[in-house]
Design brief:
Elements lengths: L4 E7 L5 H12 L3 E7 L7 H9 L22 E4 L2 H5 L9 E4 L5 H5 L5 H21 L2
Parallel strand pairs: 1-2, 1-3, 3-4
Helix pairs in contact: 1-5, 2-5
Length: about 140
C-alpha cells in the first residue's frame, strides 16, 4: 500500500475555505493526509462548520492555525485557496507541487446579506465548489 499523500490547504485566515477543503479531503479522499493552515489565524468560522455539517462533514474538531503550528513542514502538494495566500505562501522545504485553486471568500460574499439564510447560501455555494474540486483533486 502506498503512503498517503500529504496535502496542505492554505488560505488567508484558516477559518473557512481551507477548513472546508481539509474536511472534504478527510471525508472523500482516504488516499490523502490533509492539513490546513492560514497565513494568519482567524478562528474557525461557525457558518463554515454549519454548512459542512449540512453536507455530512463534521469540521467542528478542527482549529485555526498558522503554518508555523503545523506538525509537519514537508508536503507532497500545497494548495492555495485564495489570492492572498497564493501571493504570500511561505517557503516549504522539499519538492511540493504548488497548486492555486482560488475560491470566493464566504464571509466577504455574505457581508451584505439581508438574512441568515442568504448568508448561508454564500457559504453553501463555496462549500459545493470546494467539494467538487476535492472530488477531482489529483
Amino acid at each position: 500500500m502506498e503512503p498517503r499523500k500529504k496535502v496542505l490547504f492554505l488560505c488567508t485566515g484558516n477559518s473557512c475555505r481551507s477548513q472546508m477543503a481539509e474536511g472534504f479531503a478527510r471525508a472523500l479522499r482516504p488516499d490523502l493526509e490533509p492539513y490546513s493552515a492560514g497565513v494568519e489565524k482567524h478562528g474557525l468560522n461557525p457558518l463554515a462548520v454549519a454548512v459542512m455539517a449540512e453536507a455530512g462533514v463534521d469540521i467542528s474538531g478542527q482549529w485555526s492555525k498558522t503554518v508555523d503550528e503545523l506538525p509537519i513542514q514537508e508536503f507532497d502538494s500545497i494548495v492555495t485557496l485564495c489570492g492572498h495566500a497564493n501571493e504570500n505562501c511561505p517557503y516549504f522545504p522539499g519538492n511540493a507541487r504548488r497548486i492555486h485553486a482560488g475560491f470566493d471568500d464566504p464571509p466577504s460574499l455574505a457581508r451584505d446579506a439581508q438574512s441568515d439564510e442568504e448568508a448561508l447560501g454564500h457559504y453553501r455555494k463555496v462549500r459545493d465548489e470546494i467539494k467538487t474540486f476535492m472530488a477531482s483533486f489529483e
